[in-house]
Design brief:
heterodimer, A: five-stranded mixed β-sheet, 5 helices, 23% helix, B: 197 residues, 6 strands
Chain lengths: 385, 197
């Protein structure tokens, strides 16, 4: 069952007797606050709330907010990425959202769109203050300098995306220079094919506790946990080696992954993202999630990672995917000295790695440029940078 | 794909469904390994029960059971004799009308019984809730967007309906989920994220 229908059904069950048509009495326009600091490098040009609405459901209310914002670059440098923090009053404590626009190239004085489509289920009665608040969490400039509170680690995420963007533009540009239009077309079509071949799955995670039963799971379908050892995808340039790993697997759930890692580099690592790939009974392999490591990993040091989380994977139509095998690989690393490691295009030459790694935001954007403007449009786009 | 209820599967396994319902469930079960497994399990259990029907339960002392049953029958007969002796006096009292004192005592007894039942039910519900604890927060990433819910409150950042290309979907074991889509109009990439602290 999707989390939305779970929440909806739960509130509906509790308040079924009170389901009458009533006025939600919520002013969405005054309840939506965009709070940009005076020194922020972006300013609000316009905010359109379009078809936003509040629908009462007994003692609860569903808010559908469709905001189209236009933000202007008020700094003197080109922008490469922006992350907006979205907080909603009276929603699950400790939860928040963000909307990020990576792979942009906005000159000083230019503006750009940001779209926020938010849906909330919350009690009808609410405290004082705005229902939804939007703030800038981070802005990345072309020289990789950063502005923002960075409450969501936006600096790291925007920087990784920008490094991936440079890597991928470089790759396509080299293909164009070395092999002409045919070479560029070959590379972009390979990227489009990889994207099309990626299995499409829905993923759920519970950080602690038991995953609630899925909506359409048979009542007596219990499976015993079995311990599954990880295999590892080696990338020659990766700074960290995965030495051992396992998780408990039952049906479509993988629980409590454990990993042993070793830093091969002479530099200490501050943050590490390990990709978790699952293989189903049909032999399809796909990236299900990431396991982050947020403790300092000393140069040449080792560490043991233990998570309590449970992952569940389902097909788009909601049917469970039976997990057979698991594999891990290093997706990115941030060094203590502020440097970063991301897989190189040489690492991605391995077909299995290329199939598992998601396309970078820039590769997604360039594929769309090719679809809309053709090969000439793509070549022109690459010359801009 | 919506699965039939467990009751429907049990009826199907026992051949209790009729006409169209039987045909419809049969089609689903033929294609669904999980439901087919349930039906097989029901059939196996049913056969097992049938084969064990005429076997006497082990460890039963039939002589003792027979003696107890005879004693109970005698007791019942004696009680009915005693009531028959009291009946004329009781009928006489009933014909005179029931005393208001008896009515008050009976009403008070019923109220006490209801209150006791209600308090016990409330207490049990509280204990069940305390034992279960709060619902875990589920974080989800799908083609439609990302969100989290604790069962009664929810927040979701949705991808627009106009998105045509499959978004990139991922979750993190530290309680985060992300979905990344291309806006068809602007060609701009947008990443929706949710996080738990």
């Amino acid at each position: 069952m999707s989390i939305w229908s779970r929440a909806g059904l739960s509130v509906f069950a509790v308040l079924a007797s009170a389901v009458f048509a009533q006025d939600a009495g919520i002013d969405l326009r005054s309840g939506f606050k965009i709070d940009l600091a005076k020194d922020a490098p972006v300013a609000l040009v316009s905010a359109d709330l379009g078809e936003s609405k509040a629908t009462p459901r007994g003692g609860a209310v569903t808010l559908d907010l469709h905001a189209s914002l236009r933000l202007k670059n008020t700094s003197s440098k080109r922008l490469r990425g922006v992350t907006l923090l979205v907080t909603a009053q009276d929603v699950t404590p400790g939860g928040k959202g963000s909307v990020a626009v990576p792979s942009i190239d906005v000159a000083p004085g230019e503006d750009f769109p940001v779209r926020i489509d938010l849906r909330m289920l919350r009690p009808m009665a609410s405290g004082p203050g705005p229902l939804v608040q939007v703030k800038v969490d981070g802005v990345l400039f072309e020289d990789l300098s950063f502005y923002g509170e960075n409450r969501l680690n936006s600096k790291r995420q925007l920087t990784v995306w920008e490094l991936e963007a440079r890597r991928d533009r470089n790759h396509f540009r080299q293909a164009l220079e070395a092999r002409g239009n045919d070479g560029l077309q070959h590379e972009i079509l390979a990227a489009i094919t990889r994207q099309a071949n990626r299995p499409r799955v829905d993923v759920q995670v519970v950080r602690r506790g038991t995953m609630p039963k899925a909506e359409n799971a048979p009542a007596t379908n219990y499976e015993m946990d079995r311990q599954v050892q990880f295999s590892f995808l080696q990338m020659p340039g990766a700074p960290v080696e995965l030495m051992a790993g396992s998780a408990r697997v039952a049906g479509d759930e993988a629980k409590a992954p454990q990993l042993q890692i070793r830093n091969r580099d002479a530099r200490a690592i501050r943050h590490l993202e390990i990709g978790l790939a699952l293989r189903d009974a049909a032999g399809r392999e796909f990236l299900a999630g990431t396991v982050p490591h947020d403790e300092i990993l000393a140069a040449k040091g080792t560490a043991q990672m233990r998570e309590e989380a449970t992952l569940r994977v389902r097909n788009r139509v909601g049917t469970p995917i039976r997990i057979e095998d698991m594999a891990g690989f290093i997706q990115s690393a941030e060094y203590l000295d502020g440097g970063y490691w991301i897989p190189t295009r040489a690492d991605m030459a391995d077909a299995r790695v290329a199939g598992l790694l998601p396309p970078s935001p820039e590769e997604q954007r360039l594929m769309q440029v090719y679809r809309k403007r053709g090969l000439a449009g793509l070549a022109e786009e690459l010359k801009k940078f | 794909m919506k699965h039939p209820s467990i009751e429907t599967l049990a009826l199907y396994a026992g051949g209790e469904l009729s006409g169209i319902a039987k045909w419809r469930q049969g089609r689903h079960i033929a294609q669904c390994a999980a439901c087919s497994g349930e039906v097989e399990a029901f059939r196996a259990a049913s056969m097992e029960l049938a084969s064990g029907e005429d076997v006497m339960p082990a460890g039963v002392n039939w002589d003792r059971l027979s003696a107890e049953m005879r004693a109970n029958i005698h007791l019942g007969l004696e009680a009915s004799e005693a009531i028959r002796a009291y009946e004329p006096r009781f009928r006489e009292r009933m014909q005179q009308g029931m005393s208001w004192r008896v009515a008050v005592v009976a009403a008070a007894f019923v109220v006490m019984l209801c209150a006791g039942y209600w308090f016990t039910a409330m207490k049990k519900a509280e204990m069940r809730y305390a034992a279960r604890g709060p619902e875990p927060v589920v974080i989800e990433a799908t083609d439609r967007g990302v969100g989290f819910s604790d069962g009664s409150r929810a927040m979701e950042l949705k991808n627009p309906d106009t998105v045509q290309r499959p978004p990139v979907v991922t979750v993190s074991t530290d309680g985060a989920a992300a979905t990344r889509y291309i806006d068809e109009e602007t060609g701009q990439v947008t990443v929706n994220n949710v996080y738990l602290e």
